[in-house]
Design a protein that fits this description.
8-stranded mixed β-sheet; 18 helices
């Protein structure tokens, strides 16, 4: 075909096009990402306490300038440059235990120590961007790590693990990345399921999600601990048929999303949801969350209300604290030998008892805890990094009460509570919510911990009607 390509646009023309682009994110939404959740949290708590508390931004220490530094970012915390530069930094990283007199290698060792938030976490922090950009391949990293390990052990590999912690960190990280990359590719070509699986890269990690529907208000579904987007198997299409565009996400550390070696916190997961709304959905959403996912949704609604039209909590985690006046909250999380041992024992227990546990969660319709659901959960329990995720159970901080988080969402919050929840006293919780969360609507169901999956025929109409009512209020408010 003969095409008229036209002339190369000028910078000014490009800017004009971007400003006029109807798909461009609103500036107010993109600016929200500029401030960390720790900073927002401290500012909100400072107002509550009527004191001036400094934010939790990391202090950047002054360092001597290093000639031929392999760190290229403004904060000097990410390895960059060409392939040879990356290989030089990798050599320094792997040989951390040997020490060095070279200034550039000493800088790598110093940054390694700063980035080691937990054992092995420094590798992806330093080298993740270079690997994601393809400057160096995952397989080249693995080759260099094994090559160095053999040099340390007279040409052999020990069957009992690697002798250097840095080799372990590098090899485990790239093997995990390769695993989730292949799983993501499989998800793109598989015909399984009734909705398309899409991939979003967040902070270098692969996140799976789906979207169904072409028009209407945006509804985002967030699963609970140990679940995945498919846990809304009979809700996604059901809610979309009510005239909505429905998004469902498998958050970091669960299902077929990546399970990296990081410290998982409720703040990390809340920031992930914030960025997903801004970068992928592109507009404010009606946020629906089950169990711990409901708590994450509450955090997003509290800290970034511009992103949330309304919030629906289905048997949400979190407590109601009457008359809170002074809230203490620390972002500091530490891993321990006890937490690692606890995670291993918990994983073994869950694998052996998952069927019984899930049937307890579905007291009125135990057949919904079927082989499909059990097998999905068992499969995910064997993924690389699952023990790190389970360790987070011992360090999650749910001290911010639900009544505090929903304080600014009067008339815009709906509680759906399964009254036969085996892990909480539903009657007491509903009573506390009624007394201390003014303006919150409550719907009680004869169901367990996961009413949306146990009784989708009841939950879907409730959510659809709620979204219609919320949209009507928003429209009435804009007209007035």
């Amino acid at each position: 075909m003969e095409l008229e390509w036209g002339s190369l646009p000028t910078l000014d023309e490009l800017k004009q096009f971007m400003n006029e682009n109807p798909l461009k994110l609103k500036e107010s939404l993109t600016l929200i990402k500029g401030m960390s959740i720790e900073t927002v949290l401290q500012k909100k708590l400072s107002k509550l306490r009527e004191t001036n508390i400094s934010n939790l931004n990391f202090k950047q220490s002054q360092r001597n300038r290093v000639d031929k530094s392999v760190f290229v970012t403004q904060n000097k915390n990410v390895v960059g440059g060409g392939t040879n530069s990356i290989l030089n930094a990798l050599a320094a990283y792997l040989r951390y235990l040997e020490g060095t007199a070279r200034d550039d290698w000493q800088q790598v060792h110093e940054k390694l120590r700063d980035a080691e938030s937990r054992d092995g976490a420094s590798f992806f922090t330093l080298f993740g961007p270079a690997i994601c950009l393809g400057i160096i391949s995952r397989r080249r990293v693995h080759y260099e790590a094994i090559k160095y390990e053999k040099e340390r052990n007279a040409g052999f590999l020990s069957p009992f693990g690697y002798s250097a912690t840095t080799v372990t960190a590098a090899a485990d990280a790239v093997c995990s990345m390769e695993w989730y990359w292949l799983m993501a590719l499989k998800g793109q070509i598989s015909d399984e399921g009734t909705y398309p699986i899409r991939i979003w890269r967040w902070n270098g990690y692969l996140i799976q999600y789906t979207v169904v529907g072409n028009e209407g208000p945006a509804v985002l579904l967030v699963h609970g601990f140990g679940a995945f987007l498919e846990h809304y198997r009979d809700n996604i299409h059901g809610i979309s048929k009510g005239g909505n565009r429905v998004w469902a996400i498998t958050i970091l550390g669960f299902g077929k999303s990546e399970k990296p070696n990081v410290i998982y916190t409720e703040l990390l997961w809340a920031e992930l949801l914030r960025d997903f709304i801004i970068e992928v959905v592109g507009e404010p959403v009606h946020l629906v969350g089950n169990s711990i996912g409901g708590y994450f949704a509450s955090i997003v609604a509290c800290f970034w209300p511009a992103l949330v039209k309304s919030v629906v909590l289905i048997n949400s985690a979190g407590d109601v604290i009457p008359g809170y006046g002074y809230l203490q909250f620390s972002k500091e999380r530490k891993t321990s030998v006890v937490a690692r041992l606890g995670a291993q024992l918990l994983l073994l227990f869950l694998r052996l008892n998952i069927r019984t546990i899930m049937k307890d969660y579905y007291p009125t319709k135990t057949e919904r805890a079927d082989d499909w659901l059990i097998n999905k959960m068992l499969r995910a329990s064997f993924d690389p990094g699952v023990l790190v995720v389970l360790e987070s159970i011992f360090s999650l901080n749910l001290s911010l009460p639900i009544n505090y988080l929903l304080e600014g969402f009067k008339e815009k919050a709906l509680i759906i509570q399964g009254m036969k929840d085996p892990i909480s006293d539903s009657k007491s919780k509903v009573s506390m919510l009624k007394e201390h969360c003014s303006g919150v609507a409550i719907r009680k169901l004869d169901a367990g911990h996961c009413p949306h999956d146990e009784k989708p025929e009841d939950v879907n109409p409730i959510i659809c009607q709620w979204v219609v009512a919320a949209e009507s209020k928003i429209l009435a408010g804009s007209i007035s």
